[in-house]
Amino acid sequence: MRKALALFFAGVFVIAILGALGMPRAVSAAAINLNYANFPPAPTFPCVQMERWKTEVEKRTNGKVAIKTFPGGTLLDAKNMMDGVIAGTADIGNLCMAYQPGRFIVTNATGLPLGIPNAKVGSLVLWDIYEKYKPEEFAKVKVITMFNTAPSNIMSKKPVRTLDDIKGLPLRASGPAVDILKAWGANPVGMPMPETPDALQKGVVQGLFTALEVMKDFKYAELCRYVTMTDAGMYPFSVVMNINSWNKLPKDVQKVMDDMRVEQAEWTGVYMDNHVNESIDWSKKNYNIEIIKLSKEDKAKWDKLLEPIISQWIGEAKAKGLPAEKIIEDIKNLTKKYSGS
Ligand code: 3IO
User: Fold this and answer.
1) Is residue 235 within 6 Å of ligand 1 at its C-beta?
2) Which is the closest atom of ligand 1 to the Cα of 45?
3) What's the pLDDT band for 27 if we cut at 50, 70, 90?
4) In ligand 1, which atom is closest to the CA atom of 177?
5) Is the pLDDT of residue 52 over 90?
6) Which of 173, 220, 241, 291 is 20 to 30 A off residue 214, Cα-Cα?
7) pLDDT attached to residue 30
8) What is the pLDDT of residue 29?
9) What mean pLDDT is reported for the chain?
10) What is the pLDDT of residues 287-330, one digit of tens each?
């Protein structure tokens, strides 16, 4: 009887141990598990591209790799993304490089007001600039992809029709876009996207300056009933992987990811461009927003005010020993190449 009881408990013990050992594998049947951190809410474009990449990688590796995604800054937030990935807090992270202009000087040049027409072209140009110059700030990570937003426009609570209207107006932006707003006489307030809904709600800012798909995805159309079309500058993004996480991956998995770098950049650009159009239609239909177009003369005047921003960037980049003029020339030539003109 005693022996039977002992056997019974031994059995329970063995089952418990086996269960505990089996636990981590029960979470995912895949051999390789990766965490992917992102800073904005799940429905927004950086997270849409993240889910697309996850799905494709899992499919193309035949389930060998499982990726767990963390939208909304739940694993790493906007400003900690790069350092968090380097430290290994997440295996993969998606960051907006415009939030750290001094850290990503070369790639942020694609965010300057250089007339890149859309996100698809902007993303392909950005990728080529990265590939050509391989900036040293990426030495400690593996770059998974890069992409750009659509050109930036003004969304505001009150109409901005003239330079007088924008004078002193507190508008939210970040990175190179802050300089653009300053050049037009606005009172730019720098902050990452996730802090913007609160700032708009509280009246800390009277509008914002970025790609227009946020009118729908953050419901900014509800508060900002006016859009002034400026099409100036963009926000460059990158997706990076911890270098140890990358080095541990089998060659065939690395190949799947390498083969997706440009494809993902283009996919995201195309998604963004289409989504901007959907967002404008949605905002017109639901909030009757007004789209303000500058006259040709005014547009030329507004654009002219932005020229010193390029020279300023060239001065700063040169001081860092970078071939600044060549980078700007490359961006212009690549823009022509990918615009098909
Ligand atoms: C952006 C960032 C997070 C979610 C949606 C977004 N649409 C455009 C951006 C660009 C950006 O980083 C910004 O802060 O305007």
Assistant:
1) yes
2) 5
3) low
4) 15
5) yes
6) 241
7) 82
8) 75
9) 94
10) 999 999 999 999 999 999 999 999 999 999 999 999 999 999 99
How do residues 64-73 score in pLDDT, each as one tens digit?
A: 999 999 999 9
Q: Amino acid identity, residue 210? A: T
Say which residues have a Cβ less than 8 Å from residue 93's Cβ, sequence separation at least 6.
36, 37, 38, 76, 81, 82, 84, 85, 239, 240
pLDDT band at 170 (very low <50, low <70, confident <90, very high): very high
pLDDT band of 21, cuts 50, 70, 90: very low
Q: Is the CB of 210 under 6 A from ligand 1?
A: yes
Residue 117 CA to chain centroid, in angstroms? 18
Q: What whole-number distance in Å separates Cα of residue 256 and Cα of residue 91?
A: 17
Using left for φ > 0, alpha for ψ between -120 and 50, and beta otherwise, residue 201 falls in: alpha
Determine contact, residues 308/183, Cβ cutoff 8 Å. yes
Query: Ligand 1: which atom is nearest the Cα of residue 193?
Result: 14
Does 149 contact ligand 1 (Cβ within 6 A)?
A: yes
Q: Which residues of 75-88 are buried (b: 16+ CB within 10 A; e: fewer)?
A: bbbbebbbebbeee
- Which atom of ligand 1 is the closest one to the Cα of 41? 4
Nearest to 120 by CA among 270, 264, 237, 239: 270
Q: In whole angstroms, what is the distance from residue 108 CA to residue 324 CA?
A: 12
**Torsions phi, psi for 153 (to 5 deg):** -135, 165
Closest Cα to atom 15 of ligand 1: 210
Count the Cβ atoms, other than its own, within 10 Å of residue 292. Answer: 18
51-69 as b/e: b if 16+ CB within 10 A: eebbebbbebbeebbbbbb
Residue 1 has pLDDT above 50, yes or no: no
How far apart are alpha carbons 323 and 134 in whole angstroms?
13
For residue 71, the tally of other CB atoms under 10 A from its CB is: 21
Q: How far apart are CA 318 and CA 148, in angstroms?
A: 24
CB-side exposure of 301: number of CA atoms within 13 Å?
Answer: 11
When pLDDT is averaged across residues 236-256 and rounded to a whole number, the result is 98
